Amino acid sequence: MVGRDSLPVMVTRGVSKIITDSGIVRYKIITEEWRIYDKTTPPRWEFPKGLFLERYDNKFKVDLRFTADSAWLYDQNLWKLRGHVLLDDKTSQSKLRTQELYWNMRTGEMSSNVHTYLKQPQQEIEGNWFRATMQNGHATQYHVKQSSGFMPMGDIGGAPATPVQAQSGATSKDTATAQPQHEAPISRPKSFDKSR
């Protein structure tokens, strides 16, 4: 016998829904199937056939878009997104791609334990462990482990590196043959005693 807590209270197919806040359109959800479980602990929404969500700013322009092959929303707070997850933040011009993402809307924390790729105007980062903090609806702090990427460094210390000039009185021939102040250590094979 199947208990009421394992059955959805609602199953809707072919959904295109607008969500408002105080009469202002904030979100648009498009999904093939939406299941609502109200008796589970915690209550959850399931989007087993994919989810497309847009968030709108006060001028009704899209400022955030995310998609996933499947998604779950637990207790109206914690998102779990799986399969071809794409988060596109138009305001900060950042894009995040991964196969799994957790997003706690109450604390603003996002995390992934699988390969994640983040692209921003000034940098590209990827790694196999990702954490971010959302403030005012935008990701602000990132932590990536086992990472690689591109981040322009600019000038270190405020001035570009310049070559060292030769001392006064030295000729170009002297500087070309000058020895470094410290010799690099020389690696020599260890000799061993064959009599042992």
General description of the model:
By secondary structure, the chain is mainly beta. Helices cover 3% and strands 53% of the residues. The relative contact order is 0.08. It has one domain: Lipopolysaccharide (LPS) transport protein A like domain (lipopolysaccharide transport protein A fold), CATH 2.60.450.10. It has a six-stranded antiparallel β-barrel. The longest helix has 5 residues, at 172-176. Strand 8 and strand 9 form a beta hairpin.
CATH H level, superfamily name: Lipopolysaccharide (LPS) transport protein A like domain
Number of domains: 1
Biggest sheet: strand arrangement: 2-3-6-7-5-4
General form:
globular
What average pLDDT do the residues reach? 78
Helix/strand layout:
Elements: E1 10-21, E2 24-37, E3 44-47, E4 51-56, E5 62-68, E6 70-74, E7 78-89, E8 94-104, E9 109-112, E10 116-120, E11 123-127, E12 129-135, E13 138-145, E14 148-150, H1 172-176
Antiparallel strand pairs: 1-2, 2-3, 2-4, 3-6, 4-5, 5-7, 6-7, 7-8, 8-9, 8-10, 9-12, 10-11, 11-14, 12-13
Task: Write out key terms for the chains shown.
3% helix; globular; 1 helix; 196 residues; mainly beta
Task: Write a concise synopsis of the structure shown.
The protein has 196 residues and is mostly beta strands. It has 1 helix and 14 strands, in the order ββββββββββββββα. The chain has one domain: Lipopolysaccharide (LPS) transport protein A like domain (lipopolysaccharide transport protein A fold, Sandwich).
